[in-house]
Amino acid sequence: MTQKEIENKISLVENIGGMTVNERLYVCGLDKEFEKALKNDKLKAERILELLKVDKLSIELILKNNGRKHN
After folding, report:
1. For the chain, is the Cβ count within 10 Å smaller at the N or the C terminus?
2. b/e per residue, 36-64, with b = 16+ CB within 10 A?
3. How far apart are CA 49 and CA 59, in angstroms?
4. Are 71 and 21 in contact (CB under 8 A)?
5. Does 70 fall in a domain?
6. 51 falls within a domain
7. How far is CA 45 from CA 7, 16, 33, in A?
């Protein structure tokens, strides 16, 4: 999936700010794409989280823990 496709999916969802990271990934249809990126392309995984407006500290923790704790 390209960054443009990811951006398009995210743009279809409103008010993601109050959701957990898992909820954001799920409602945007990016949960499987994120898990794949987490294993094969950390930069893409990081970019997905940035586009989902996840704060920098949380992104660092998620990537460090290999996604085990992304709520």
Report:
1. C
2. ebbeeeeebbbbbbebbebeeeebeebbe
3. 7
4. yes
5. no
6. yes
7. 13, 18, 8
One-letter-per-residue 3-state SS of 24-43: HHHHCCCHHHHHHHHHHCHH
**Total-model pTM:** 0.87
Q: Report how far residue 60's alpha carbon sits from residue 29's, in angstroms, rounded to the nearest whole number.
A: 22
Residue 41 lies in a domain: yes
DSSP-derived secondary structure letter, 69: -
Which token pair is 16?
A: 């993601």
For the chain, the domain total comes to 1
In this structure, is residue 69 part of a structural domain? no
Its domain, for residue 51, covers: 3-64
What type of residue sits at position 25? L
Q: Position of tokens 């898992």? A: 22
